[in-house]
Structure prediction request, 295 residues.
Amino acid sequence: MVIARRLFPYLFQRVARSTAEICEFDSLENYETSYRRLAWLLGHSKKVPPPGEIDFLHSIQDRGAHPGTIGSHEFLFLTAFASILAPKRAIEIGTLAGFSAAVIAAAIRRQHPDQRRTLVDTIDRNTHSVVEADKPVGFQIPDIIPNFANTVRVHAPADSGIVRELARRDELHFAFIDADHRHPRPLLDLARLAPYVRSGGWIVFHDIQWGTMGRKAVEAGETLRWGASYGAEWLFDHWPFRKISGGNIGAIQLPDDKSALIPFALRLMRLQFEITGKDARRTQLALYQSLFELL
Prediction:
């Protein structure tokens, strides 16, 4: 009841969608051109890919073939984003094979070559891959970054609630969410991360077009292995602050006043949940509690 009373006034605040800026990475051959555009959008117009980055991307471009792993255009966007922002560490929610965690760690390591501590904390609700059940989550990390695999810490089984144990408030500048895409799970992951990401910081989301892509595939007569969820897509589309789209991957920027997330989140929660029963009620309660922490 205390939480409800405090959040109630935010229900009546107006929330307008913003228009995404576009920066898609169409190929590795055009990586530097796209990198320069993204750097300009992020306010780092003089940055260029550091030595070894493009060679590294060439070396791993065929290793992301495991089911559920981000595609080549997406890991180019993710690499460039981490490279340009050059955070000292990052948090990822949704590990799966660990490919994206390794990619982020590699980008950070090139910007901070003397850094020896953990570069990426990656969190997964499962101990083993949901698409390759005989393999533990994060199994690709030693293959992608064999010389510094220990800079990635895998937390499994765990969910985004563990973030409070991994970071200080307003510490992070960059995070990546690629976990359960069913609405409102991506929103919950965002709400739990927000207190620990500084104002003006960036959070990248994967599968921001997955719901629409899945619907079109079904209409074309295709059978989807995992179905298609709109959670990440709705969150990105309704985001009222600055955002950058890279196709099926995109980044949102937190506002200066993070309490401004509350009316946005409450409006998004009015959309039909893609989870049901006790799971939906637990998620809803967790959302209210997380939003309360933004006050």
Q: What stands out?
A: The chain has twelve helices and eight strands. The two ends are 15 Å apart (CA to CA). The mean pLDDT is 94. The first strand starts at residue 21 and ends at 22.
